[in-house]
Design a protein that fits this description.
Order of helices and strands: EHEEHEEEEHHHE
Helix content: 25-40%
Shape: globular
Organism: Amycolatopsis methanolica 239
Largest sheet: 8 strands, mixed
Number of strands: 8
Protein name: DUF3145 domain-containing protein
Pfam families: DUF3145
Structural class: alpha+beta
Length: 163
């Protein structure tokens, strides 16, 4: 079962860029040569993005490979496929990796079990609001938004898994 997704490397030091390409190449089984451009939101950093097509679950493998470099800011998306929810992964230095399920239109899906656990453990409205913000990746979105806008109109590389 194949699906598609996007890797957004929002910021990377130039010395790490070849390692990012190697990590993506190793996961997809094909040589990756990204088009790196300046990241205006972080002077001296570079950004790149690529669309990929591979088996379901590849998004998690890509995110696991990229988080080896804690100075990166990145997002990995995986579209839903037959019997498999979509996913989004966000990484921000200082916040770490966030993972969430997504619907067909890209909204974050919060499961019944997650909501029941919150209600059972949160004792005050403010605590509940904070935990919901965590489930919805609010801190990651806030940290990444300037980097997302700075990448509007940047070139995109298309990749397909070999085999």
């Amino acid at each position: 079962m194949s699906t598609r997704g996007v890797v957004y490397v929002h910021s990377s030091p130039s010395a790490v860029c070849p390692h990012v390409e190697w990590a993506i190449s190793g996961t997809l089984g094909t040589r990756v040569d990204l088009k790196w451009t300046a990241q205006p939101a972080a002077p001296g950093q570079l950004r790149a993005e690529c669309m990929w097509s591979a088996p379901a679950g590849t998004g998690a493998k890509l995110a696991a490979g990229l988080k080896a470099w804690p100075m990166l800011r990145f997002e990995v998306t995986e579209e839903p496929s037959a019997g498999v929810d979509g996913e989004r992964f966000c990484y921000v230095p200082g916040l770490g990796l966030w993972r969430g399920r997504t619907s067909a239109n890209g909204d974050i899906v919060v499961g019944e079990d997650q909501l029941r656990a919150l209600v059972a453990t949160c004792r005050a409205g403010e605590q509940l609001a904070h935990k919901l913000d965590e489930l919805l990746a609010s801190s990651w979105d806030e940290a990444l938004e300037p980097f997302r806008h700075a990448g509007d109109g940047a070139p995109v590389t298309w990749l397909h898994r070999v085999g």
